[in-house]
Amino acid sequence: MPQSMTGYGKGTAGDFRVEIRSSNHKNLDIHINIPHHLFSYETEIKRIIKKTIERGRVELFVPKQEMDNIKLKVNKSLAREYYNAFVSLRDELSLSDNIGIDMLVSQRDLFLLDEPEIDLENFYKALEAALKELTKTRVEEGQNLIHDISERIELIRKYISGIEQKRDEVVASSRERLYERLKEFLGDMQIDETRLVQETAILIERSDITEEIVRIKSHLKHFSEVITSNDSVGKKLDFIIQELRREINTIGSKAQHFEIANNVVEVKHELEKIREQIQNLQ
């Protein structure tokens, strides 16, 4: 089911709370804000996220926990080594300073926090719950986008149908108008009537929009198939929109007809709206 890249989810388990939100981005861009005691699990957290999310900026936040029973350990043997080194240095340099606890406290590697074991089982449960809720909101938003896009595709089909209805009328009137202009231009010159008709037909063919209409219908059919698939659709749909814009621009330059020109403008407007919306589809 196609998903929006915008969503939010949270999960709790044990003492852990995990919040995760996603927004529009051309690739997968993961940002993690976690307490220091989870730093060593960052790679695994990203691996789990990548199993669920393919595109978008993802921000994960785990609030710092109030850890009970934290103890501070002192490396006493290292403290003695520091003390002996300070005393030796003082004596060698004939310094008068006293070696006190304040000098030892400044040596950070003497102290180590003895934290209780991390409850990884509950952490990963909270993470999975947050991802599940995030996916739910992304799917719901994706369905809203698809509904609106599908309505716009139907509008485009109507505009193309209107262009198609005017096509034969335009070709016939253009053929007659061009034929008369050629006759007027040639004046009294002797020219084979059949040849004149053939040349007129060649010039008219250059302004025919039949092929463009056929390709547009094919692109619209492909678009509808892609948007209802279970794959990531954003990039595929963006490519189809580019192809549709190219074809409708060609029609606009070929068909010099007021009603067709109006329909071309409307199709361009709807394609631009669709292009904006699919930027937020995974």
- Give me the strand/helix succession: EEEHEEHHEHHHHH
* Tally of domains: 3
DSSP, total strands: 6
Runs in which pLDDT lies below 50 for 5 or more consecutive residues are none
How far is it from the N-terminal to the C-terminal residue, by CA?
A: 10 Å
SSE blueprint and pairings:
Layout: E1 7-13, E2 16-23, E3 28-33, H1 42-52, E4 56-61, E5 71-74, H2 76-92, H3 101-105, E6 111-114, H4 120-186, H5 193-206, H6 210-227, H7 234-254, H8 258-278
Parallel strand pairs: 3-4
Antiparallel strand pairs: 1-2, 2-4, 5-6
Helix pairs in contact: 1-4, 4-5, 4-6, 4-8, 6-7, 7-8
Structure description:
- With 282 residues, the chain is of the alpha+beta class.
- The chain has three domains: 7-65 and 118-137, Ribosomal Protein S5, domain 2 (2-Layer Sandwich); 71-114, no CATH class; 143-278, no CATH class.
- Helices cover 62% and strands 12% of the residues.
- The protein contains eight helices and six strands, in the order E-E-E-H-E-E-H-H-E-H-H-H-H-H.
- The protein has helices at 42-52, 76-92, 101-105, 120-186, 193-206, 210-227, 234-254, 258-278, and strands at 7-13, 16-23, 28-33, 56-61, 71-74, 111-114.
- The chain has a four-stranded mixed β-sheet with strand order 1-2-4-3. It has a two-stranded antiparallel sheet with strand order 5-6.
- Strand 1 and strand 2 (16-23) form a beta hairpin.
- Helix 6 packs antiparallel against helix 7.
- The radius of gyration is 36 Å and the shape is elongated.
- The mean pLDDT is 84.
Task: Briefly say what this structure is.
62% of the residues lie in helices and 12% in strands. The chain is of the alpha+beta class.
